[in-house]
Automatic annotation (TrEMBL):
This is DNA polymerase I. Keywords: Coiled coil, DNA damage, DNA repair, DNA replication, DNA-binding, DNA-directed DNA polymerase, Exonuclease, Hydrolase, Nuclease, Nucleotidyltransferase, Transferase. Gene3D superfamilies: 3.30.70.370, 5' to 3' exonuclease, C-terminal subdomain, 5'-nuclease, Ribonuclease H-like superfamily/Ribonuclease H, Taq DNA Polymerase, Chain T, domain 4. The gene is polA. It is an enzyme of class 2 (transferase). It comes from the Bacteria. It comes from Phycisphaera mikurensis (strain NBRC 102666 / KCTC 22515 / FYK2301M01). Its EC number is 2.7.7.7.
Amino acid sequence: MPDAKPETVYLIDGHYQFFRAYHAIRGGMTSPVTGEPTGAVFAFTAMLLKFFDTCRPTRAALVIDSDEPTFRHALDPAYKGNRIAPPEDFKPQIPVMIEIARGFGLPVLAVPGAEADDIMATLADRLTAADPALRVTLVSKDKDLEQVISDRVVLYDVQTQEVRDEPGLLEKKGITPAQAIDYQALIGDTSDNVPGVEGIGPKTASKLLEKFGDLDGVIAGVPTLKGKQRERLEAAIASGQLALSKQLVTLMRDVETGFDADDAAVSIDAIDDAALLALFERCGFNGHPRELARLKRTADNPEASLGRAKQPDPREEAPAGGLFATPAAEDEPQDDDARYPAFANAGYTCLTSRTAVEQAVEDARSAGRVAVDTETLGMGHHTGLAGVSMSWKEGEAVYIPVLSPEPDTHLGEAEVIELLRPLLEDASVAKLGQNFKYDLHVLAHGGVEVQGPVFDSMVAAFLCNAPGLGMDALALAELDHRCIPIAAVIGEKPRKKADPPQKSIAACDLARVTAYAAEDADVTLRLCNLLEKRCAENGVLELARNVEMPLVPILFEMERAGILVDPDRLEEQRARLAERADELKAEMEAAVEGASPTPEGEEPPSLDSPKQLGALLFDRLGFPVQKKTKTGYSTDAEVLEKLSGLAADGALPNVPTAAHGLPAGMLEYRMLSKLTGTYFAQLQAAAQQLGDSRVHCSFNPTGAATGRLSSSDPNLQNIPIRTETGKQIRSAFVAPEGMKLIAADYSQVELRVLAHLSEDEALLEAFAENRDVHTAVAAEVFKVAEAGVTKEQRNAAKTINFGIVYGVTAFGLARRIEGLDNAGAAELIDAYKARYAGIDRFLQQCVTQARDSGFVTTILGRRRVIDGIDSRNPNQRSLAERLAINSVVQGSAADLIKTAMVDLDRRIRSEDLPLRVLLQVHDELVAEAPAGRADELAGVMREVMSSAMTLRCPLEVEASVGADWLEAK
């Protein structure tokens, strides 16, 4: 038990710390479990961790404002009336922060009709009066509390460790605590709408109080003052404004709290680990549990402090330092098995005999659906198999090991594979999984070709707009179940060289592995059962069954196939582009020296340094500054594009002519540098990974919110398709000997989807008559005959056509069309909407649906939740409106190409066609076929893709054949 009369009581200013926590974290953190905002909670928790570690409190409390009006509102209805509403994502976090505080054992004080400052001032007086040995520390930097400072009351800032005491206040502001009320009354407080005296700021106020002693002395001395200062003071006194200001800033010292020092008893030992860990899990905090555990271990050892002084980064798993931060833990506690019931679940069984596995296969086949999960020796698709877990009844699961520290007690891999093959390759039994594409790879590597309908809980969660897609987050959100973390089995990931490495799962205790693996299968089954119903409730079950789930094994086959790369051609392309980058850099450096020679003795600026480039462009060469960052001038792509446009328009009179090409040159140089320095290296490494010279990228069905596929390792969507450079890169992707590549691409698919959805007659007519849609639109908007449309007009129409899908604004359009200002862009958009009224009506319908329902839907019913559609912030609201439009059109295009992929796969299988789909990039499918049948099979692809959906306008598909991707394109 702590001492009954501790030396210090800490009173934490709750709302001050809440707001400070909110503004400490940028980027809109949300929980992967609940989807709720968590940035302020994250930062506030880190502050408390640091506070308990640094201060080791034995008496503390969190003091917060109540919602009721105070006496100040009765005195002045305008009190705090100028405050804007807090951010929309702040208020929901307050109850969670209060819950966090209670988990730390902090009593939470709020008194109706009193502000937190009033409560703190009252308690500071009463506690120090009741115990002459007691000190009070107010954990705040709020200036309103400076009047409470005394020889035993100080203000404390956790971030800087700064203590504001009587000498510190005098040094900082030139006043004593006794003068703090008068000082604040004179200067007022704009944040609280306290008027003060016009024209009197901090320096003047401190001088007046130094001269006259207090406010009464200032009032008495007004006749001795001169000029405006005297006039303003007289006016404030006469109107009662000064007296009102003093009343408003004077803190109450008689709030009835019913609270004494004994009520504030806290300790590190008394922190409620279970409550906090549950909150951390729901918030998705990975680092805080470790810091809490380490804090608890240092409870009796103040020397083992956690404190560091760096700003936290919530993107890191273990944020470090600073006001709202916690440092990285040096070591991790052993997970308590009691926290994870699966470790003792009698329903989870390890199958070690042939008879037991055969019975499990029979039971799973009888159930008609089985959840399957693999345990592997590493993370890659081709890593070794350690075991397979299965579940066909909720609450029960089996684990079948093939590798363990006890190899003599169970079956080997070959025997297990042969026993499981009849079940896994049985097309009548549905297979359930979590990120099941990975398990398909692992099982295929072991020789099993999984058959049967697939249901993937990760994909289903994505269709249901779940905030998190990982199994642990889904289990907690949907099942209120904490899964065993992998670290509880194989150990924590080492954070420094001295830390032991993680074990292979094959080297871990078989009982613990069984619990972990069997739980995965059981949770997967439960999630699939639940999410299948959720899909039905959300109207996306048919989309799931007919498109998204059949796509999972298709993507697996595409990844397994890969696409052949010619390493020599790839290296030739890399070397050629690297040479061009070097030439371009030399040309720009020469242009700079010609325009503004580097002074003798100085180093020429580095074009690869954004900071030096900024100084060169804006300080030395006189380019107009476009925007700044915290570290100086911005030279990002947007800035360089704007400067390039100004140079093209001849609108740089103060810049030497020789330097006009520098922004455009830098754009090209950066693109080339990125391609040669990063992208080619990724391609070359990917092609060598399996020794087959094929790039096996990963396709992610949940990677884009609109429903489009994304790719990674490497991301082939990043190839710049509209540039000559990008086209040449494609030439390195080749067909094997005796084969050809087929590239089948939808033509203007998003515009055709827009025409279908909007039912705009003019746009539908243009597509029906197979006219050049951009020319047709230009003719309508600019009111000229199609034959008279200029290249510039067609380009403008093309930009609007594609931009309208993304909710383009006048500002955005002006940026995209050279020589067009905002007013001209607005006129162009208005003319477009007037002529294509169906499109404008459809765009408004998208926004209305989002506002009424909270989501928008695609052609096949795919939903996307649209946050911020009613936001008070016009920028957030505008962004939400653009997302609503884009999600419907681009999401419907995603529906289309995914449907085409499923239809094509069905056609290939039903007719046993020698056609293998390799890639899906944007609106294009790339496949491989025997050279002798390539033209025929290109026709099949064209036929299937063009009939994947029936739209109000025809779907055009261009399919070409070539020895490489460029030639096929």
